[in-house]
Amino acid sequence: MVCGSEEEFQIGNIPDLTGYVSIVTGGNAGIGYQTTLQLAKRGARVYIASRSKDRVDQAIAAMRKDEKGLDISFLKLDLQDLQSIKCTVEEFLSKETRLDILINNAGIMACPFELTKDGLEVQWQTCFLGHHALTMGLLPALSAAALYHNNKTRARIVNVSSDAGLLWGPKSINYDDPNLTDLTGRTAPWRRYGHCKQASIIIAKAITDRYRTKGITAYSLHPGIVQSNLQSHDNTILGTLSRAAMKISPTSSAVDGARTSLYCATSPRAIDSAGLYMVPFGKVDNRANKWLNDPKAVDKLWEYANNQLKNHGFPTEQ
Ligand SMILES: NC(=O)c1ccc[n+]([C@@H]2O[C@H](COP(=O)([O-])OP(=O)(O)OC[C@H]3O[C@@H](n4cnc5c(N)ncnc54)[C@H](OP(=O)(O)O)[C@@H]3O)[C@@H](O)[C@H]2O)c1
Hints:
With about 325 residues, the chain is α/β, with parallel strands linked by helices. The protein has ten helices and nine strands. It has one domain: NAD(P)-binding Rossmann-like Domain (Rossmann fold, 3-Layer(aba) Sandwich). The chain is about 45% helix and about 15% strand. It has a nine-stranded mixed beta sheet with strand order 1-9-8-7-6-5-2-3-4, sandwiched between helices. Helix 4 (about 120-150) links the parallel strand 5 (about 100-105) and strand 6. The relative contact order is 0.16. NADP nicotinamide-adenine-dinucleotide phosphate binds near residues 32, 50, 109, 225 and 228.
């Protein structure tokens, strides 16, 4: 059920962001491209955290054709390599003392089963655990932003999740087999995608519960259905059919796909929805409350995720 009778958030409602520092993961393509562009147009400094400098440089050049002087830079990030995420954090902290907005947007969908070098299923790591590692590493910078602005609502983390988390994943997180190794059949990659997106919804609540009093809040959202590179990963008949279906079904533009992220990241109104699951354009959707209203489910994922990071040599919870 979708709640909220107020007017839908528009790009024109993004406040002035001069002086704000932000990161958009996967900001070189699709929804992330527009998220980056709109933040930068409102005056924010934006780091595109992504894996290919060439692709990011091309994106920045295209954005500057739209508007000169945008303050956008590349930050190397490979979510499929946990150790390299420590370098991403170090690199960022060598340049900036605070981070106002972190948009965990990068993702892959319905890839064939594959383990990363960290031994995690590739979607689980890209969409969930890699982003959690990045978020935890950047918490000191997010805290610094909250202190800097002396504002309990300023430092925000936005997890770009998906309705797939509600529709395709298991009923709850599978802690016995988080890689969902045992799944078989053509739908298995899609169900793994749903699983990691479910986790990204729940972890936003866990972060908000723990850091809200320190001025940091987190949000999760479905951006809408947008034609992008995301649909290119499944080369089976199911992937071909879904791409064909996308071509004839109503889809949103990438800029509309970015609107709910931008709402969560910038709107003064969004603070009332901290920790919740949002849908276009900036509305709370109660369907995820079956997990979000269950403190045991939220705490369990928090503990699992931080234990995983600890096992991979990350500092323990701050
Ligand atoms: N499009 C939709 O209809 C839809 C619907 C629901 C949810 N979403 C979610 O929205 C988000 C954005 O999707 P999109 O449609 O804009 O997809 P997209 O066009 O495929 O863009 C994905 C971005 O993620 C980056 N990325 C992928 N793997 C990475 C890794 N290992 N490390 C760092 N960056 C990585 C990609 O970088 P490269 O350029 O290097 O590949 C690209 O910049 C995703 O989280 C997706 O799950 C999308």
